[in-house]
Amino acid sequence: MSATDDETQKTSKKLDIATAIRLASEQLSELLRCEPGSVSKVKATEDGWTAEVEIVELEKVPDTMSVMASYRVALDTDGRLVEYERTRRYARGQIDRR
Predict the structure, then answer these.
(1) What residue spans define the domains of the chain?
(2) Close Cβ partners of 59 (under 8 Å, ≥ 6 residues apart)
């Protein structure tokens, strides 16, 4: 096992994945003052966790027209939000064509 693997395992043991998901969503939605959507990706790193968080940026009626955004966030080993970046905006009803 490499030193990098050891660091990732220590991070994973300090903060479990469910807690990392909850903290990423809660902290980003509080910072942006927007309704949290979901977490579509989460990964333990040497420095903590990274996650892709979906946020409702603008409520519309019908809700399929609401504006959503994907944010890449980073949490430190204690679960504190240390970085975020919006990576995509889209209508809630939009489906990826990948």
Answers:
(1) 3-91
(2) 35, 66
Which residue's structure tokens are 């309704």? 35
The 3-state DSSP class for residue 36 equals strand
Separation of alpha carbons 52 and 69, rounded Å = 10
Nearest Cα to Cα of residue 45 among 22, 76, 24, 72: 76
Greatest Cα-to-Cα distance within the chain, rounded to the nearest angstrom: 52
In this predicted model, what pLDDT tens digit does every residue of 8-31 receive, in sequence order?
454 445 899 999 999 999 999 999
Closest by Cα among 66, 69, 75, 71 to 89: 69
Beta-carbon count within 10 A of 37 CB: 19
Q: Which of 7-11, 40-44, 75-79 has the lowest mean pLDDT?
A: 7-11
HSE on the CB side for 28, CA within 13 Å?
30
Distance CA 31, CA 22 (A): 14
Rounded CA gap, 79 and 97, in Å? 33
